Structure formats: structure tokens, C-alpha cells
Amino acid sequence: MSLPVRTLNLTESEAMALERNLWTDQYTTASMKADGKKERVKVRYRGGHTRDYPKRSYDVVRGGETVHYNAEFDDPSMIRNALSFAFFPMIGVPAPRCRHVLLYRNEHPQGVYLEIENVGKPFFRRRGISASALFYAINNNADFGVLHPETGTPKSSLLSGYEHRFGGAAEKKRLSEFIRGIHETTGSRQAAFLQQRLDLDNYFRWLAGAVLTGNYDGFEQNYAIYRHAKTGKYRMIPWDYEGTWGRNCYGEIQDDDHVPVTGYNQLTLKLMEHRPFRLMYRNILREALKGPFTEQKIMPLALKMLAEISPHVREDPLRRWSYRDFLGEADLIRRYIRVRRHIVAHEMEKLV
């Protein structure tokens, strides 16, 4: 089964510039051939510690829009991000579109990559969503708290964990005021404040997605938050779900109960103080367990993805994991779903 091919062409000077900018996030020029069309692009390496890996990930700007090419180096299945982004729309949360491709750098095969849609203005336009502001949660300071999560001291800025993508300076002030207001109100005033500023249905569905897939790294960072133009309320979009479905972000087996049923950021902590919100969240979890988060719904998708990339993973010259590890991933994901369903079903009944 063939995968789409992407060929990134760099001259010697462009390749040297890319290496010089390994940790700077600076783009260099190149060209890319995709879907039979060759065009000039901008390219840079992406990720954190993964830039030290032999198989690196890329950001490519094509036609004015960024496209992410993830090496998925730590994931022996190479489908955990894709499977998660397919799952979120099942529970009513928009997620980036993605597909597996074969990437070449000049004439040299780089193996299987995941091509991921960027969360930006075109993302919202394609879905008919009006967004007034967008922020990326890029580190664990994006926990909706007022204190630094590691030192316990006041944050220098309530936006220190965020990257502002669009919306103007007034939107930065508005998000800061939202985070501050979470902590300056209590009781019925806090509940009213949250209902007025936060799309509760979206938030609890996003939370359920992170909890069910087991993304321990997804509550204080690795999400996008935007303000919906029509309602003025904040909504969430998932991001970076490689460490899910039974493994953490380094590819290690993770305990099935490692992620608590309520996650662990400061906003969720405040929401769970209010019984109507707890019941709303519990109903969303129940709804997910009845259909979307089942072996019957998830495994056909997982098996299809695994089958599509299987022959290419076997020939991938830069893969970390053995092909034998890859072949065992379907059973691991199936077992995770089965066990995780039992854990969540038990724990959610405490949300009374």
C-alpha cells in the first residue's frame, strides 16, 4: 500500500543553514515536491529534545501555511498522534487533520512521517469556526495557575506558558484576566464567572479526550486555546498526543491509571469544586464510554493505520524501534482501551 511522497530539496548552503539553526527556530529556504507540485518553501526543525534524534521533525511553510512533519520517533506504532486526532472529533472536539507520508530529503529516504495540519487561521476557516484569538500552551506554566508550578512563587506573567498566535494585545490582557479571575472568585460567583467565560461543554470534552487517551503531558501544556468570536468563550484544541494509548511521550509503557480521571491543571481543579460541573463532565465520560471510546470504534481505525504504514515502517532506515515492536502495538492499544475503560468507569462514579 503506497503512501503520499514528499520530497524536500535543499542545496548545500540551505542544508548548512538548517543545521546552524537547529535550536533557533529560524527558517531557511528550500523546495518541496508534494502531490505532483514543486514549490519554494521555508523549512526549520521542530520539537524540543527530539531535535537531538537521528530522525528529526520539520515545520514547512507551503503556500503561506505551515505544515508539520513529525518523525514520531519515540512511538513504536507511529499512529498514536493520528489515532488521537481521529478520536477527538468523535467526542465533539475539533483536532488537526493528519496523514502518514514518505519523506525524502533530496534523494535520501527519511522514512515514514506524520503530516499534521497546523492550528491557525486556515484551521478555523476550513471548519467554519470564528476565532478572535489563539494561544499555544508551550510549557507547564500554561496550567491556568497564578503560581509557578515548580517553585510555588508568583508567575512573572500569567501568560508565561503561552505563545500568542493572533488576536491583538487586548486578547493577551483578556486571557490574563480570565486566569486571574479563576482564582479571585469563589462559590457561586466563581461558577458564574466560569460559565460566562469558558465553553464548558468543549472544555469537558477536551478533558475527557486527554483522560481517555492517557495523555499525561496534555493538561498543563500541549494544547491550543482560542476565544470563540460569536460567544466570547474560550475553547480548547488538542495538540501533541504521541504519548497516549498505553505509552508515555518517550515510548515507555505507562501505568493504565497514571492519568487521573480529572486530569490535574488549576482550571479543572476549580471546575470540580462545583457539583453541576462535575455531573456535566461525568455525563460526557459516560457518553464516550458508550460508543466512541470502545474497541469496536477505535481498533478498526488503528488497524487500518497500522496496515497502511506497515511495509514502510519495516523499511524505514531511521526508525528507533524494531519491526517486532511495531507488530505488537495493535494488541497493546487494544489492551489499553479495555483496561482504561474499566478504570474510568469506576473512577467517574466518584464525581457526585
At a glance:
Helices cover 38% and strands 21% of the residues.
Oligomer: single chain
User: What integer is the average pLDDT?
Assistant: 96
Low-confidence stretches: none
The share of residues in helices is 25-40%
Instruction: Indicate the structural class.
Output: alpha+beta
**Order of secondary-structure elements:** EHEEEEHEEHEEHHHEEHHHHH
Radius of gyration: 21 Å
The 3D shape can be described as globular
Distance between the termini: 49 Å
Please indicate the percent range of residues in DSSP E strands (runs of 2 or more). 15-25%
Number of helices: 11
Number of strands: 11
User: Reading side by side through the largest sheet, how are the strands ordered?
Assistant: 1-2-3-4-5-7-6
Major sheet attributes: 7 strands, mixed, barrel
